Amino acid sequence: MSYLIFIVAVGLFALLGAGGPLHGDRWFYALSRRVDAVELDLWPSLALRVGAPLLAGAAVLWVLEAFLGGLAEALVGTALLYFSLGRGDYPTELQRFLARARVGDEEGAAMLLSEHAADRDPEEARGQRALRDFAYRGFARWFPPVLYFWLLGPFGAAAYRLVELANADSDGRFDAAQRLLDWLPSRVLLLTYCVLGDFERSRGLLTREALDTEVTAETVLAQGISRAWRLDDEDMDGPQGVVSAVETAHKAMNRATGVWVVVASLLALV
């Protein structure tokens, strides 16, 4: 059943992208405003934002099981996993960034980076900044929900997305929870990059940065891509270096996605 849910939800996401009622989050923002009005402490506030929708999902599953039996689990599980996958049209945004970077439109390309990336150290190479941004955005939209789905089921995947929505809606108030949830998926994806790319050059990350809880997911992933695919940090400040960095990140994520799908398929057959 889990494999069927996974294949259907991931297939729908690949076909339809982020959109439709399952990715309409206005109801969540309305819930967040109500929680803010109660003025709870940090962790109770997050628990209510995440727990209330999950309890509602569990109630829907319980009701549907009375009428549909085992089919209810497949329907609700698919809906929850599809909901947990990322927001926005990431592939289009990436291609728009590359199109502007290729023609030297630095200002236009910078406008397509997230606000968090734009606020980073101005002395950091532009290619490194873009690599961090697109590596993390591509990671967060797919890999953590999939990993938590296989570890904890559809409700675990949905919980990750709810925390991400809560953190984004509150301008980083729940960064600690977000970093905690990003830690395991980012390290598993780093291992995937090391296996797919230059393992000898990148394996040091697995014994140093990967085990350091203070190193953020975006840093680990950017370093993993840079070393596994032999990007030169000194070349990342020029237009071609920016394009090369983002294209490499896109290639790395596409390959890693294929590996994760294959591994999930093999585990389902065992």
Strand content: under 5%
Q: Helix- and strand-based class? A: mainly alpha
Mean pLDDT: 90
Shape: globular
* Main β-sheet description: none
Number of DSSP helices? 13
SSE string, helix = H, strand = E? HHHHHHHHHHHHH
The level of helicity is: over 70%
Please give a structural write-up.
The protein is mainly alpha-helical and 270 residues long. Helix content is 77%, strand content 0%. The protein is built from 13 helices and no strands. The protein has helices at 2-16, 26-38, 42-68, 70-84, 90-102, 106-110, 115-118, 126-152, 154-169, 175-196, 199-207, 217-228, 239-269. The radius of gyration is 19 Å and the shape is globular. The two termini are 14 Å apart. The model has no long low-confidence stretch (mean pLDDT 90).
Entry keywords:
270 residues, 0% strand, single chain, mainly alpha
List the helices and strands and how they pair.
Elements: H1 2-16, H2 26-38, H3 42-68, H4 70-84, H5 90-102, H6 106-110, H7 115-118, H8 126-152, H9 154-169, H10 175-196, H11 199-207, H12 217-228, H13 239-269
Can you summarize this structure?
The protein has 13 helices and no strands.
